[in-house]
């Protein structure tokens, strides 16, 4: 009986660990999906046909972002996820897709994404004001 309980406990532990590892977390950028959908190129991804705004919408249709910024000056689009930023920029007649962890992406594209919370500030946990609003 003791052996059966230990085996069952080990099976539960392995199942939990397997479920928590690998793949994309629901609040991170859908890296695996992007890798399957778009052509890899020097660590980035390319869509040789669609403009950045359209590719961003395709990505958001797969997994909603916490924030989106469409830049009017250079046709770039930025998608904010819990731990990542996806940047889409014009590339020929299509788009280049770059994925950075949030802190690196925030520093790299600060001129575009400075309205988003500073990495590590916990500002993204603000749920609104007013009595009982979102609390």
From TrEMBL:
Keyword annotations of the record: Signal
Signal sequence segment: 1-25
Statement: the UniProt record of this protein carries the keyword Signal: yes
The protein's name: DUF4247 domain-containing protein
Species of provenance: Allostreptomyces psammosilenae
């Amino acid at each position: 009986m003791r052996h059966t309980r230990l085996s069952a406990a080990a099976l539960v532990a392995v199942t939990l660990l397997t479920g928590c590892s690998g793949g994309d977390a629901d609040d991170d950028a859908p890296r695996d999906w992007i890798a399957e959908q778009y052509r890899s190129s020097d660590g980035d991804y390319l869509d040789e046909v669609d403009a950045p705004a359209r590719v961003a919408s395709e990505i958001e249709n797969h997994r909603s972002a916490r924030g989106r910024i469409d830049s009017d000056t250079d046709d770039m689009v930025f998608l904010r996820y819990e731990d990542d930023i996806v940047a889409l920029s014009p590339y020929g007649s299509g788009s280049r897709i770059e994925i950075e962890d949030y802190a690196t992406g925030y520093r790299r594209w600060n001129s575009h994404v400075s309205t988003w919370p500073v990495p590590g500030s916990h500002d993204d946990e603000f749920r609104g004001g007013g009595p009982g609003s979102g609390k």
